[in-house]
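During the second half of the funding period, the structural biology subgroup turned its attention to how the target accommodates small molecules. The most pressing case was pyridoxal-5'-phosphate, which had performed well in the primary screen but for which no bound structure existed. We therefore specified the complex as follows and requested a full 3D prediction, including the ligand pose.
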Amino acid sequence: MLESSRERLRQNLDRVNERLAEACRRAGRDRYEVTCVAVTKLVSEEIAKTLVELGVHDLGENRPQELWRKAAQSPKNVRWHLIGHLQRNKIERTLPLVERIHSVDSVRLLEAIEMEATKQNRQIAVFLEVNASGETSKQGFDPSELSAVVPAIASLTHVRVEGLMTMAPLQDAETCRPTFAKLRGLRDELAPQLRAPHRLEHLSMGMSNDFEVAVEEGATFVRLGSVLFEGARE
Ligand SMILES: *Cc1c(COP(=O)(O)O)cnc(C)c1O
């Protein structure tokens, strides 16, 4: 990788970390409550590897096949996050590779992951994706469907539901604030209905154009792509 690209990546990363720290300070939150997942979908494995060398160990992909490809070449200390739709026929191959799945968007998928996790004898943390903005183009549970998922969650033994995820409308950050506040409100409503080991402690929300507002509204995972890689792609 070109030294100039590497340097640019380092600068972007420093700047993102400063902006995250400032957003946490404004919200009276501890910086360590927020994990930055670097979304590598538009960059090469080489750039992804450089990120790891620069200390970023949480990487995300929105397409299972691309995650398989990059995970096969990534250092062992990477925690991979699947942040996009998972087709049921791709669960078997995806499960051993990922730390978390942010994008469980149906009970059918939740149950299929449970079945495969049981077969593979492993535990997996997932988030439920919620269409909090109400846009028809978005994946995820409708907010009104969430309490009906509680009985299905209660019977899981290998899948732990640990949070909610949403995608805000692609608009300016302040326009996204109500969507983030809504996800937090849904979390607060749903959390008391779940029993250990399920706990809705996490909110995965905020992308390059709106992550500071997401942090102010309680995000514990932000998913960042373009803001990290600007000017660093060869
Ligand atoms: C691409 C993607 C991101 C990152 O988007 P940027 O705007 O480039 O930061 C975050 N979340 C999901 C689900 C994505 O597909």
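Two results from this model are relevant to the next phase. The pocket of pyridoxal-5'-phosphate is lined by residues 39, 41, 62, 83-84, 167, 207-209, 223-227 (CB under 6 Å). The mean pLDDT is 95.
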